[in-house]
Structures
1.
Amino acid sequence: MSNDQAPKDYRESLIHLEYQYTAGSATTTFLNQVKEGRLVGQACPKCQAVYVPPRGSCPRDGIATTIEVPLTDKGCIESFTVVHIPIPGNPIVPPYVCAMVRLDKANISFLHLIQGVEIDNIRIGMRIQAVWKPKEEWTHSLENIKWFAPIDEPDIDVSTLRFQAS
Amino acid sequence: MSETKATLLKAPFELSYKYKRSSGPIMSQVFEGLAKKKILGSKSKANKVYAPAAEYDPHTREALTELIEVGPGGIIESWSWVHQPSNHHLIQTPFAFALIKLDGADTAMLHMISDCEKSDLAIGNRVKAVWSETPTESIADIQHFILDI
């Protein structure tokens, strides 16, 4: 191609996919509780590991997680990252922090936002609690929690975050 | 856990994003050719002609830089009838997806055959390209193929 044509070389492309998502029984149960402001995990009857959000089975034992475990909205930061690059269509202005949130009594973590603290002060093991949207805005979504914010409790011992084989 | 199938949560999801991509020096020529109603294939040192064009020979790995015109007629190498086109299909009446070996090419390319009945189609039948009058420098500049008997 000659140089005068170079700009044409870039073509606008579009990825578009429409589909129907079916939550499945474990996620349906979980999201129905989330709509009421409750976080309920499921435990494996064999290894006792508590999964939140639950997927309905224990990946280690390969059996259904039949025990419901009500959890609080408190936990700690298991891991985090500072996002500096804006994602097109994402309304959150960088820099912001995404963290793997480990709720108390849970054995796995999930991704959520951390706010209400200077980024430089965020650390693994920091105690946090959910900041909920107003009740009238609650839907079947973890976005009912706006973000997690630090609470005035001592950090937890990071070694306890390791997956405990019980 | 105790949710029956009827009470499972469902939601429509739509994943969509735009991006800009470069077609590169070889494929750019091919797309520009389509807008001029020309189908270009890639010719290897061993005189094998790939259509759709390729940047590299899949067998010898040589860079393919020579482009030659192929088609616009060809033969049906394989086909599959679409009884009920869905919204995302470019043709909204029953049509066929087909592998078409264009005249002068050694490989077949995937496109659509329209304006025909299912019973008209057979492997080996001749087809020819129908061009779009509003070219966009994309494969859609060939609207579809029709039977050429």
2.
Amino acid sequence: MSTAPFNYTRPKTLDEALALLTAHGGNAKLLAGGHSLIPAMKLRLAQPKMLLDITRLEALRRIEERDGRLVIGALATHAEIAANRTVASRCPLLAEVAASIGDLQVRNRGTIGGSIVHADPAADWPAAILALDAELEIAGRMRRRMEAAGDFFMDIFETSVEPDEILCEIRVPVPAGPGAYVKTAQKASGFALCGVAAVVDAKARRVRVAVTGVAAVPYRATGVEEALAGKPLTAETIAAAARHAAADITPLGDIHASAEYRAHLAEVNTTLALQRAAAR
Amino acid sequence: MSTTTGEKIGYVGRAMKRVEDPRLVKGIATYVDDLRLPGMLHAVFVRSPHAHARVKRIRTDAARAAGGVVGVFTGAEVNAQCGTIPCASSFPDLKSPKHTVLAGDRAYFVGHPVAVVVAATPYAAADAAELVDVDYEPLPVVTDPEKALEAGSPLTHPDLGTNAAFTWNLTGGDIDAAFAKADRVIRQRMYHQRLTPMPIEPRGCVASYQPGEGTLTLWTSTQIPHLIRTLLPGMIGIAENKLRVVAPEVGGGFGAKLNLYAEEALCSHLAMRLGAPVKWIEGRRENAAATIHGRDQVGDYEVAVSKDGRILGLRNRTIADLGSYLQLLTPAIPTLTGLVVTGAYKIPAVRMDVVGVYTNKMSTDAYRGAGRPEATYLIERLVDLVAAELGLDPVEVRRRNFPAPEEFPFNTATGLTFDSGNYEGALRKAQQLARWDELVARRTSRRRAGALFGIGVSTYVEICAMGPSKAMAAGGWEWGCVRIEISGKVTVITGVTPHGQGQETTFAQIVADRLGVPIEDIVVLHGDTSVAHYGRDTYGSRGTAVCGSAIVMCVDRILEKARRLAAALLDARPEQVEFADGAFAVKGSGGKRLGWTELAGEAYIAKNLPRGFEPGLEASAFFEPENFTFPFGTHICAVEVNRDTGDVTIVQYVAVDDCGNQINPLLVEGQVQGGIAHSIGQALFERTVYDEHGQLLTGEFMDYPMPRAEDIPDYVLGSTVTPSPVNPLGVKGVGEAGTIGATPAIANAVMDALRPLGVTHLDLPLAPEKLWRAIRQGHKE
Amino acid sequence: MGVPVRIHVNGALHQHDVEPRVLLVEYLRDVCGLTGTHVGCESSLCGACTVLIDGQAVKSCTIFAVQAEGRAVTTIEGLAQEGRLHPVQEAFWERHALQCGYCTPGMIMTAVQLLKDHPQPTRAEIAHGLKGNLCRCTGYTHIIDAVEHAAGSRQGAA
């Protein structure tokens, strides 16, 4: 099963990549880990005329702490994030999510930026990005802009990144409060039927809860967050709040899980994620 | 029987690592996709995206004009020259559609090949395939086999006038009397889901024609090179003795490669037509759509029982979803279910009605277990339902219905004769290994703690070593050949085609012991019809029992001949000569010993042979089994079901399998473990899904869940040994046992876990959402 | 249209002009003639095509050969040194961790990285580490045994 033919180039800088992206209009695609794009190309669902291989733009691969933010380059692989010491100490939730993705080989190759921009509704990262209130730095030819995670995911396979823009960094305020990610995997693909990331902000007496896999667009479970605002986290308060985990959304249904079951998993996994986060 | 090395500890019975492994672990074995022939062309198929459609017009000009393209062919251009895909089963009244290699004016399932592109590279072929423009007119689709039998249903094959391919029934004993005198009748409808075999190597073939010799060689990833050599010549117009079929290294079969497929026939035809080798390698999506599926039977089952739990009779009507065409054994699978439906029990009366139904899906056929997993599942579920209904211990109900060891050979109401068995012995051993009383106590305490904990037992019997020729469509014998080479090395040739079963090792073990030679001196050849001239190949757990027996016959013949030669060379009479440790000597003489090197030298150089003695030291043999073999065993499974999610955790698993004598216990263990893994998939999550439009929703690994390493529990495996009396090795077969015995044990365990909630039966697979719904319903009630 | 590509494969430098759409697995099999790396699916879920790039296990069906420019690739054929099987290969043989052998090269390559990262893994860690590799024959138990065995033998050798 081969892809349609295409041209390939490896821009040396971000600016060059942005220039090429603009020059080729909609015909060019960025190639990072390739774990979403290449399978789609093999099915010829995607037939870009030009691939811009940006995997060697080392500037987009760094993981570092900067100005109270943990900054993850968009090209950092899941494996790199899972194993990174700064991540482990400043925002272990990110490491937990990274380690839950796919399998060893996929984590070695797949990138956080590629996953986020692909915006598969069953991807793991969006839950963490939302629950951590991350900001995303997006570069265009003329400007760089910051986008709040909450404004980033627009629809299935659609984000606020324009075709001539490149996601550069994911910035997470640190130290992040204790968090946890609880995922029910689709048995065949390993993607999330339901993944819930929860973060406890003890100072603010607030929690942040985000859910992926359940709706067309990953979402913050605001009903859960409001129900727990200012309250102690006990088994009872958590269980009561978790009932709102799939309120106000339209759950997806398919052969792997009905809408009803996905909504139920949102409640179950929200409960577990909050319990675990609270215990950390 | 013949002389053997006697009591001395030999290779047979030892857990030995495999002879075939070094090439496989080094990555230097040759699978079909590894073949590269000069001038080789590549075929890519254009397949129907519709489950049922009229093929109005196919435009191929753009594809023909594309770079690298050698040819584009539609049904109109090849079907007349390629004959039809064969089915080995024949019933009186079997309605069979004409199964051409490419679709004619209709496509009958998603994935049905409608055209083929042949090009210089696989890339060019794939690019050109995109340019083939097929104009389809969608037609009404048949997906539900039960509705397909209703009046007014659309027809899968309108020309047949019905969706029913056949009706078949089997009766034994007085079924009406059994139900009339029953204290209780238990009824359950059960659906056995459709499954996709998914060997990790998809199918593929390379066909190459040698015009000088007029011979065709077909390398194909198949379990049945010999059957293909029998069936293909008539299809494509080549003489059988001009066709060589080679199964190179084959990356898993599980029944999926027990077929002659359209692609194999068409690539063979095209290689002859184009005068160049043609290669086709199946993609995974093609494999999911257009390689056979398994199971897919639904039925209403009724058992008549006495109040003490004795089963008096079993009757049912099974509807088998055949898919759109008859592949090689399609109709034979549900009927095999009927033959073994009584399981390991003395059930005096049976009536089984099977209706085979055409639908717009891929054909069903033999998938690991092939008919027996269906039978075992339904009888084992029914026994548990009987026990529940009567308030009896399910293990006790099983015991009460077992034939006793002294009742073997045991005749079933379905007309089979079980060769040997000790069902109670396997059950007892499994209970010991499971520490049964502790396990039951654990269930009590876990339930008290609020957990959904269940124990399931399956006491299965299955049918192997296929089989007596009178019961098989194309001969059930097996062929082997053993040759002592002039150097004294030993070549063994088998008519079966192992593809993971390890017979290069087990057959070498058998021969090494009997000839008294080191196993390193033996080479076992298989899978090439120009080397292994005859064979009926590998399926139905038959290799060791049937071909191993043929090889024993060969060894016996060689020993007999060698004894005569040795006697002549030692100036003795044959009966004065004894054979031990690989050499012949005059009994009690302590004198000269003639080993295989000396004897082979004499036999081939042939200067000192007795008058009339035929040179050479080689024997071939056909072994005709007098009966099938009937392996059996007990599997015990304990599970815990998560109340919140329906997730199942297997917390304990014990299997005791009796496959008769074991040639290599390590390989037996491997077969059992692999088989149980298939069962875990089938019991808990695997299913092939078509939607109401006949679209395949499980068309790749993204959507068809299979067990991964983390899904496998720790097993406790044991065995009992009840030799089979129907072959000289006393072996029964073990390739499918795990897949047959384990599914019902797991299903019974899950159902037992849910019993306190009032749940009595759920159909497979017992996936989390289904269990969660049942739990929720149970809580409401 | 070919793009020049230089890849170190099993220690030897390979230089070819390669069409960009050629997958790494196709490059290894068709260009380098190393057919031990297998293809079982198109969706990077079976792991039969696993090779190491700079020591990291990756699925070579989901990487274009051009992306491996300048990298060091190790395939199953490159594991045995001087005719001696790698300890993981040896362990797979010893513990009957393969039947048809088709998934085996990918399984072994993954296990090699797994043992590099976790020299003394538990059975659960092994099973988790092999999550990206499907085997339809063995039922995995003997594979886990083999990886455990390889870990033990390496420890013994150290």
